[in-house]
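Example 3.
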Amino acid sequence: MSNSDPTEGLLPCVALARLVDHHCHGLIGTDLDRPAFEALLTEADAVSPLGTSLFDSLIGLAVRRWCAPVLDLPPLAEPDDYLARRAELGAVEVNRRFLRTTGTDTYLVDEGFRAAELTSPGELGTLAGARTERIVRLETVAEDLARAGVSAAGFAEEFRTELEKRAAGAVGCKSIAAYRVGLDLAGERPAEDEVRAAAGDWLATGTPRLANPVLHRFLIWAGIDLRLPVQFHVGYGDSDVDLHRCDPLLLTDLLRATAPTGVPILLLHNYPYHRHAGYLAQVFPHVFFDLSLCVHNVGFRADAVIAEAVELAPFGKFLFATDAFGLAEFYHLGTLLFRRGLSRFLSTGIDAGELSTTDAARITALVTAANARRAYTLD
Amino acid sequence: MSNSDPTEGLLPCVALARLVDHHCHGLIGTDLDRPAFEALLTEADAVSPLGTSLFDSLIGLAVRRWCAPVLDLPPLAEPDDYLARRAELGAVEVNRRFLRTTGTDTYLVDEGFRAAELTSPGELGTLAGARTERIVRLETVAEDLARAGVSAAGFAEEFRTELEKRAAGAVGCKSIAAYRVGLDLAGERPAEDEVRAAAGDWLATGTPRLANPVLHRFLIWAGIDLRLPVQFHVGYGDSDVDLHRCDPLLLTDLLRATAPTGVPILLLHNYPYHRHAGYLAQVFPHVFFDLSLCVHNVGFRADAVIAEAVELAPFGKFLFATDAFGLAEFYHLGTLLFRRGLSRFLSTGIDAGELSTTDAARITALVTAANARRAYTLD
Amino acid sequence: MSNSDPTEGLLPCVALARLVDHHCHGLIGTDLDRPAFEALLTEADAVSPLGTSLFDSLIGLAVRRWCAPVLDLPPLAEPDDYLARRAELGAVEVNRRFLRTTGTDTYLVDEGFRAAELTSPGELGTLAGARTERIVRLETVAEDLARAGVSAAGFAEEFRTELEKRAAGAVGCKSIAAYRVGLDLAGERPAEDEVRAAAGDWLATGTPRLANPVLHRFLIWAGIDLRLPVQFHVGYGDSDVDLHRCDPLLLTDLLRATAPTGVPILLLHNYPYHRHAGYLAQVFPHVFFDLSLCVHNVGFRADAVIAEAVELAPFGKFLFATDAFGLAEFYHLGTLLFRRGLSRFLSTGIDAGELSTTDAARITALVTAANARRAYTLD
């Protein structure tokens, strides 16, 4: 049916662009019942009985509208019909179908979160028929050392060695300081004795979970020393986050301190602070940003959010990503809603005479792939 | 005249929906001259001679556009003509006319602010021909005890007793901590000795005005213990507010601490932090929110603000309200601008194939009444 | 060519309005190569090799679209062609052409930043064929005293004397506290001994650069004592700024303390906090605000930002300005994008019956000139 072609009416340069998805996760390989499926539609821990169904939200509508046709159902199929068809096809086939719709050439996969439940980067690449590259989660490396019994005195050196080992073949690293202590981090590289003292405090807690501003900074600088582009979780995330501590502007000191290194910093998600991220991408030479997670969450409002994001940011600093996690639907939604939003933004400008189709093609090439290739030196 | 029908062109499900107005106030029952009327159009203490007339603002235009026809004047009648006609009809008739336009079945009335100047919940119900329910303002109960000479040692117990008494027959309570100390409140329930010490500090000030973070928290937890849904003033309000201390994200600790109780928390107004509130409504099971006051203040921009509010929030967590105060015009404007904004949001989605008319009807039913009925257990 | 008339389709009242540009700077009088030109398109220190060209941004597109025709090129001329033509005409002719497009009667020129590189207010007035008035930068006056060897004990008195002297014939003053210490300033006027102690601290640093909250407050109150309207840098600026310390809401205490004086406070730029500024303009009688810099930076998104800015603010408190600096293109872009955005906002309202053309004309007169004339008592 004609209204299930998500690229209908889009600028050809956007519809046909091959993508680099610079921030994403593995998929759940097993079948899901309705509560499990709905729980993945929200960043809450679970669906609230006080709030009715997650299908009554923009992300829920987007699943019914745009994912149902990929499973041979009419657009806006009812939730139960959707889940029945999903079960009938089986998770493997469902994942394969959605991944094959995306037009993505290269996936940079964050392998550090709930890895045991999800497909590995290699499995994802096979399913998608695409290249995958790894992003090393800094805190995971540190926490593995804690589990292995590292001493406070030995931590700094062992971390550097271990990170170098794990980063071999990886294209970047990621900090989740936002989840643990917020983004209000001092800029300067912590001294070795500060790191030792902080490691002592941390290891004395008896749990490997790292939440110490000095250590998060140490990890970030260790990544920079290896010239690994550093991703930061920023903004919208699950209810573990104190969102007001995740404003990317809180990173200003650290961005100022790291600018001279020339190592790219990539601010992920950013909503509702995406205008702040756009500002940082303009004024700091090494800062890039995306909307990722936000795009599929806000469904048909993605157009509006994308337009806000690029008000100040040079197009050479804004990146496509899905931040898809668990559900293959998010790969499909994240790419199609991004294509639609970008295309409408550019078409609006073309129709008003504010840019040419040649300009639109060049901007599209930057945002969909070239910026990521340049930031991560993928070629 | 045809262009004075505010429901023209709206989705029938929205135009005809019977409303629960879960946050509103009484009306001024006396006639108003132009300075008094204009002063009620702004959250400032008075109209500034530096700023010309409040009629030159979006709320002022909305009054002329949408309220004039209810008083038998053409749309966009001049301010002086409007006020002359208002005086001619008299406050009682004016209030009656505006209240009868709203299509509201049930009003939840905040009775704690400037009660002596305003119609009581009962009077409002009679004027409107509708059910009214009471919301108890927590700080008013406490301050009445201070006026009656409560001791620091006796405060906690007497407050609990008095709140239970006053809450009999009420459907919820409200905290105005935002106005007094801001929303950056610790989450955990304060210990009895902390409450006693804080009450001592407060009573020693010699004024009943409560502004003490420990006591605001105590009041809130007392409401939760009675399983009363708790409303919070959030965001935009008068110049007493330090607006940067009223970001709803500052409530994160308290929301995390109260989530296990299952007692609903309702975030009021929220502008300009409405996207933040939508996020909280997604990630916390017991959080609901509205735009209320903001809707009539931003006039024909209400569409844009409503669309932003629901980007992340499940529709099961977003509530209609007017926060009408003093002027009956606000009941009229708050309802019609909300209906228009909601209808346009849904129509945009329907026209783009993003949802069906059945979906729109279900979402409308949630937002206009069912969410409030469920949160306050009104049935 | 028809599509280069930037006023095509605009409301006549907006297209023809004579403007007061209440916040702007001088121009660079020499020719610029591409790196130098691009560097002026960004608030970063320089163009980042990681981010490609600044022409690939909304401001870059706006230059090509709207400035090229003024230099006899087709809309969207290529950057190199644009710069070649600019060089061919020479800076003097280029500056003259752009300034003559604006329809601005009066410029209020901030003369305190990089004055040696830029045209003076008098030169600007001659180029533009318009009246110019001076805005005195408070920190520049103080820093000149430091360079001249003022003592801590003598600072307060000498500053007052010097400010009065320099403010003779000026129409306002400006604080750049935002750049130095952020806007979280206490409200009350600092005592003389506090000023003396703070001046001692400052002078002991051995550099004239002032960055001391007590002294910034002292400077501001000295301006108010002379009944000089006080401009504040707020929000978006270069990478020297800690943007999260530049939220105008942080000025709440100071606004509350200064309100009784009746001296206008003018909040400049404000993006991305422009809704916050609109709120302050509503609730404080003496607060005005603009978008200035932001308008030409966001190119064809200016419409959206202007609409957000006036949601809460009375139209009597919102001002036009360009904040043009260095490139005469910004005078052209700032005025035409503002006219287009304002016109579209008003036209949207007229088309929907929300205001009349008479209303639009009155609002336009306020925003484009009358508010500035009233705030600065220019007549």
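The mean pLDDT of chain C is 95. The first helix of chain C runs from residue 12 to 15.
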